[in-house]
Amino acid sequence: MKDLINDLNLASKLEYDMQPLTMKQENAISIIRQIIVDFMNMNIDDKFPIEWKTADILSACYINADKDLLKRAISNLIQNSINHNENGCVIYVSVDDGNNACKICIEDSGIGASDEQIDRLNNTPYYMVCDTNTAEQRHGLGLLIVKQIIKGHNGEIHNRP
Ligand SMILES: Nc1ncnc2c1ncn2[C@@H]1O[C@H](COP(=O)(O)OP(=O)(O)O)[C@@H](O)[C@H]1O
Ligand SMILES: [Mg+2]
């Protein structure tokens, strides 16, 4: 409940530009490594091992970012892999700096989502998601917040690599 209220608060602030982004030059790789360490400290490694797939030669990937919000977006995605795969899965995280862009990829080996489900998530405004069909009920604002944060960074979101 507390999380939901926090999420609602953040989502509406981002929506109405009331949450100013504090952009600084940041190393995406160190931010993401920190997030992984935080998840690993939650002792979920048996059920949800996290694999770092980034090329060893890439030690830094500098971007202009709001560190806290970027962390929030990436954590939401990793948390989704955990929340929506009750039997466990491997979580793959990578950073790639090709084409003058920093590409951050979060994937999992879990149940995934159908094209239809992804389509609905992409195209249905949050307030219109049906609440009578409990199997499809959307509880959180996780992906909406991810979208808002990436938009605030002038970034792009791709569903599949
Ligand atoms: N990694 C994932 N694997 C499978 N389904 C996912 C994953 N991430 C998100 N989903 C689906 O997308 C929906 C929306 O995610 P989100 O906006 O974070 O809300 P919540 O996690 O609170 O349900 C989830 O309810 C789930 O059905
Ligand atoms: Mg979620």
List the helices and strands and how they pair.
Blueprint: H1 2-15, E1 24-27, H2 28-40, E2 50-52, E3 62-65, H3 67-83, E4 91-96, E5 103-108, H4 115-123, H5 142-152
Parallel strand pairs: 2-4
Antiparallel strand pairs: 1-3, 4-5
The structure holds adenosine-5'-diphosphate (ADP) and magnesium ion.
What's the overall average pLDDT, rounded?
89
CATH superfamily annotation = Histidine kinase-like ATPase, C-terminal domain
Side by side, the strands of the main sheet go 2-4-5
Compute the number of helices. 5
Largest sheet: 3 strands, mixed
Radius of gyration: 16 Å
List the ligand species.
Answer: adenosine-5'-diphosphate, magnesium ion
Cα shape: globular
> What would the CATH topology be?
Heat Shock Protein 90
Q: What share of the residues lie within helices? A: 25-40%
Q: Work out the number of β strands.
A: 5
User: From the coordinates shown, what is the CATH architecture?
Assistant: 2-Layer Sandwich
Assign the structural class, choosing from mainly alpha, mainly beta, alpha/beta, alpha+beta, or little secondary structure.
Answer: alpha+beta
Total tally of structural domains: 1
In percent terms, what proportion of residues is strand?
A: 5-15%
